[in-house]
Design a protein that fits this description.
203 residues; 15% strand; 7 helices; elongated; alpha+beta
């Protein structure tokens, strides 16, 4: 992320520099300059535009980057492989902000997404039990997925991606597989029309 910021910042903007801000739950990279060309927060992973081609050539020549235009996608792929959330991007005035969330779990339960107060009440005890027994073994993202399944057993990968946030459907697929390998969740029925069950909580 540091190399990417150095490569793509707008050097004509004076009075500010690249800033890396560390918080308890996240790291934020602030890079001067709006997104160039056709690049937008929603397509930044696969749409490439070199604002500073000479700097990019230098970084590649000295092996700071592997290939042109693959930095963000490689960052996201590496994070997904390790079971972490991918960065979120947004532009604030003329500053591009990339946020990487910390991967840790707490002893408190996560809020049930998209459920009524009555539904939350019926799943509260199960969620607390799940959180207490899985917090040391699974990531924050995986805990959120388990909570979503408890609230809605028929939830789809697309719905999980929307509810968890800052993750692709492929990332959800990866985490579901890991949770199945741990015996925490089980798929019952076909991909279409089936449902999830939360099984072994003693992990």
């Amino acid at each position: 992320m540091v190399v990417n910021s150095c490569c793509h910042r707008a050097y004509n903007i004076k009075g500010t520099e690249i800033q890396i801000k560390m918080f308890d739950d996240r790291i934020v990279f602030e890079t001067p300059g709006d997104l160039p060309g056709l690049v937008r927060p929603e397509n930044i992973r696969h749409t490439h535009f070199s604002r500073n081609p000479k700097i990019a050539q230098y970084l590649k020549a000295y092996k700071y980057v592997k290939e042109f235009g693959e930095g963000i996608d490689r960052i996201c792929s590496e994070l997904e492989t390790k079971g972490c959330s991918i960065p979120s991007f947004h532009v604030d005035a003329f500053i591009l902000k990339a946020t990487l969330m910390a991967e840790w779990t707490s002893e408190t339960e996560f809020d049930q997404p998209n459920t009524s107060k009555k539904e939350q009440g019926t799943t509260q005890k199960t969620t607390q039990k799940t959180t207490q027994k899985t917090t040391r073994k699974i990531s924050v993202v995986q805990q959120k997925i388990v909570n979503c399944i408890i609230a809605q057993p028929t939830v789809s990968r697309k719905e999980l991606a929307n509810q968890v946030g800052d993750i692709t459907e492929d990332g959800i697929k990866y985490h579901l597989k890991k949770l199945q390998q741990l015996g925490i969740i089980t798929r019952v029925g076909a991909d279409n029309g089936g449902h999830w069950e939360v099984g072994n909580l003693d992990v």
